Amino acid sequence: MKTSLTKLEGLKRSLVVELPVDTFNQKTERIIKSLASKVRIDGFRKGKIPAAILRQRVGGSAKSDAANEIVTETLADALKDADVSPAAQPSLVNVDTESSNSFIYTIEFEVFPEIKVGSLKSLTMDQINSKVTEEDEERALQDLQDRSTEYKTVKRKSKEGDRLIIDFEGLLDGESFEGGAAEGFEIVLGKGTMIEGFEKGLIDIAPEKTVEVAATFPEDYHVENLAGREAIFKVTINEVGSPTEVKRDDEFAKKFGEKDFETMKSRMSKQMQVELESRLVQQNKDTAFTALLDANDFEVPEGSVSSESLKLQQDMESRMEQQGMPSKGKLPAEMFQEEAARRVKLGLLINKIATDGEIKAEKEQVDAKLNEMALQYGESAQQMIDWYNTDPSRLANIESIVVEDMVAKHVADQAKVTMTDKTFLEIMSPQN
Which fold has domain 150-243? Predict the structure, then answer.
């Protein structure tokens, strides 16, 4: 076997493999002979077709099959001989079956880049600290109380804390606008869920009354043509509901599947801490990896990016389907290219740092990560753990997450870090 490796554009490579022609001829003859008992030709009994006629009839397909078999059988050795590792499955671009001296085939493929990670000590990044306070726990308990509150219809005028069922229509300069109307809308006065002035204008109003309320959209409102503008809302109060008292006792806890209030409070506190730690790890990891990516620029295989882009596309379409929003046709692949390239590049960097630093996920660390994830599954926690442990590919995904966490910590430990304290709400809010 002779091999010749040629560098093409970027990470693309071409490999020419040359083998003795006898290898090809012998395999072709074996295939032709194997077909002799299967081929039917008018005028000849099955298995009695003359060799010359048989070659004429099936020789072309036999050569093609022989070539494909040889490529399959020799490709691994050819790549080893050329001392090259493709980033993805090579493509067969040419096969020469007509030479009297050699059987030659050519493959093309991409290779992974040679990565030299820049000094981690030169990186600068922010990292965040946070903790669960008594105020955070109180806020969480109050939220549970609010969600448990029931409302009794009353005939009196509305006051803060009441739940109103309303119909409303918003007007800008006397004209209605998109998204500015609703029927049977529920609102609890004092919660601050509506724009400024709206809730205040509905206090001390009797049921079945219609009022006009002036309210102003925030300057940073997500709908540009509404931002900072005042609207007049015509509001009809259909119903006023007075809240019933909810006590923090054992009966309250049982509504949430706990045996008593103290157990519920303790479990809630632990869950808040777990969720906070998970969010901190993720945010700090994202920051570390962004700094790492910004400091290391290199080319990535186009095939790997395309594969990752397709995966992102399929994941997005699947999520849309699950949410009842099926995409009309395929989402354009190009919308995922940038994120796909980022993921491929980051994956290569993480692998390089982990390999150079001999960073590996030990069983104890994987088990700890599984137990952390299982806390979100309540009574089904063990079932979730077993689901991962019974499938090596699923468990490998957890191992990858653990290695990512370890690499991120390694990067942050080496870098110049500025620590910032944030509250529980700042960390857990969606915009963060």
Answer: Chitinase A; domain 3 (3.10.50)
Q: Is the pTM of this model over 0.85?
A: no
pLDDT, tens digit (0-9, with 9 covering 90-100), for 235-246: 999 999 999 888
Segment (H or E) for 424 = helix 424-428
Amino acid at 347: G
Q: For residues 430 and 311, give the distance between their C-alpha atoms in angstroms, rounded to a whole number.
A: 25
36 within 8 A of 58, measured Cβ to Cβ: no
Distance from first CA to last CA of the chain, Å, rounded? 58
Residue 234 exposed, middle or buried by CB count within 10 Å (0-12, 13-18, 19+): middle
Name the residue type at position 183: E
Domain boundaries, the chain: 2-110, 120-132+252-428, 150-243
Backbone angles phi, psi at 34, to 5 degrees: -70, -25
Give the CATH number of domain 120-132+252-428; options: 1.10.260.40, 1.10.10.10, 3.20.20.105, 1.10.3120.10.
Answer: 1.10.3120.10
Triad 110, 116, 122: Cα angle to 5°? 140
Q: Over the chain (432 residues), what is each successive 10-residue block's mean pLDDT? A: 94 96 88 68 57 62 87 95 94 88 95 94 95 95 89 94 95 90 94 91 95 93 90 95 91 89 92 90 94 95 92 88 74 88 96 94 91 76 88 91 94 95 89 50
166 contacts 235 by C-beta, under 8 angstroms: yes
What tokens appear for 58 in the block?
């099936």
From the list 128, 126, 421, the residue with the least C-alpha distance to 280 is: 128
> Within its chain, how far is the Cα of 204 from the centroid?
48
